[in-house]
């Protein structure tokens, strides 16, 4: 038997269901952030057990989650640590905060493929704790993250900051080379040469010094200054013998000479590059083309029929008479 109800009113049962559904819906939205049933269970455990724990204990829990492969859950917990700390500056708070920023950035950068998130966390870390060990590690990744996001200007600033903050730290010379390459890619050739020269000056024994010299030489080539490029390539050959950059410089020297119409010296450069170049097939192809042009430019005795036919002149001549 049904009972009449006033229009617009719901039964107690429906109202009760609606009241219960709101937190259920909120929990469902939260659970969508966690992947898989295991992560879901972990998320529930965090909600039930996280209250009352110290920030340091939560950070350790976040690290345990990360080590276990539950990266989304670990990121949520690391951010909960930062939220709990707020602006607290009591003993140990800064240590925990640095660790949480670093963990969140590492999770985004290395496990979750979220470069924007990683850059944000690292940048906050560097801004608040510029001389902390965690900040030096963050700086080493910031430039590459910005480059992935298409922010070349931001990447250049991050690499420059990395070099300025710790020029003696491993990786500073690599950051300097990245600066030179980025500027070359932007066709800022004078700036690229200056950055490459800075690397050679500040880190003369670096394994990247030959690459910097080769990059500087290529900027002349790319800007059409062939005479300067030839001199710079020869400088790389003389300064860094026995390196892969020497072979690459010989090959590029040959290409530059070809563009200048000097096939004879180009053939010589290609021949010298061939034994040690990383791509001998490419060098062989360029050498064959230059040698072919050189042969075609030589005069041939028209009475030497074999030479004429080797050159294709007789065939071309017959074709022109028909």
Can you walk me through this structure?
There is one protein chain. The protein starts with 11 loop residues before the first helix and ends with a helix. It has a domain at 57-163: Tetratricopeptide repeat domain (Serine Threonine Protein Phosphatase 5, Tetratricopeptide repeat, Alpha Horseshoe), CATH 1.25.40.10. The radius of gyration is 33 Å and the shape is elongated. It is mainly alpha-helical. Helix 9 packs antiparallel against helix 10 (189-202) and helix 11 packs parallel to helix 13 (244-259). It has 17 helices and no strands. The chain is 75% helix and 0% strand.
What's a quick, concise take on this entry?
With 322 residues, the protein is mostly helical. The chain has helices at 12-32, 36-49, 55-67, 71-85, 93-111, 115-128, 133-148, 152-165, 172-185, 189-202, 209-222, 226-239, 244-259, 263-273, 280-297, 305-311, 313-321.
